[in-house]
Amino acid sequence: MGFVRRTMRFGGGLVLGGAVSTAISVLLAPRSGPELQGELKDRAEEARRAGEEAEVLETERLKHEYRRAVADPYALTGLYPHPALADPAERERNKEAKKAQKELEKRRKEEEKADKQLQKAQKELEKAREQEAKTDQQLIEAERNIDTRTLARKE
Q1: Considering only 44-53, 74-83, 120-129, which range has the smallest mean pLDDT?
Q2: Which residues have CB under 8 Å from 90's CB, separation 6+?
């Protein structure tokens, strides 16, 4: 009996504690359920809008950086101004840039040609060295033959 009585007291205390804590929570809650849900929805909407705004701003910043890097104010805009309407200073800069690009390409081709000629000369030099080594070997062999014949005649 003692066990049943203790279990009943514990269960009663548990139920009473839950009821009291629920009553205190309801009385001290800063907002009702619908108010809290509305506030959370508002915060989520603000966060979504802030994310979209940040994406747009970052996209524009990257476009601006790209335009500056390629020196073309119309890059990534879809606008291609008519050359006659372009700023004269801009046209001159574009001409100079194209000229510099052609000069750079010309120099690059000349360097490639010089590299090929250098490689060809190095191959020829290597062949000449091999031929020289072969000739030296033949001379040494000929000298040995001469020495051998000379010794054979002396004997």
Answers
A1: 74-83
A2: 73
